Fold this protein.
Amino acid sequence: MLKTFSITDVGKKRKNNQDYIFTSEKPIGNLPNLFLVADGMGGHKAGDYASRCAVETICDVAERAFEKEPQAILKKSIEAANEMVYQKSLEDPDLEGMGTTIVAASCMGHYVQIANVGDSRLYVIGESIRQITQDHSWVEEMVRVGALNKEDARTHAKKNIITRALGANNGVEIDFFTIEVEAGEIILMCSDGLSNMLEDEEIRMIVKGQRDIVEKVEALVREANNRGGTDNISVVMIEPVAQ
């Protein structure tokens, strides 16, 4: 049994929304369910196109995939989406150089299969908050090698430079994670329009301070906008275990 709710919001500063989300509590092909957050990048319309194209391709390929294992399905689907976005960027000058992040999740009972490229994130929130995905960004790589601390990374001039994007090249390196979620824990997927505005512990406190899943998501988006809403804000929340 899943409870889910999601919002994508243009924010306070942007004229268009380059984020694109997809949620299905019902099976998509051999996947029991599917949740996607994509944050596009590129010119005037290229970011919008990249994120939507990637999500639609992932859903289409997953629906027809013969593989049984969720990781294999996600791998096949994301690689196909990478090829589609990359080819479109070569064919149309207006789409040249576009790309998108992707974070994908599929829940099977207490277990969640996750895939990501870029800096959109998946967290697990309970008594603490854990970031499961690793950002593929310049500042995060500097943090990992000890050249930058977490506090400075949040405000660094290069914090928006990502080192992996879906559609940027003719091949893509995908990170995969399989986690177990305890009763009472919540899965949060988001674009950096949320995670750049709020500290992780602030996210946890907002989530814990609301009564139900709709209020939790609405409160996160509202607070990100209250802090300036400098980017598009996308939030997908999943309660994977019957409460």
About this structure: The chain has one domain: 3-132+161-239.
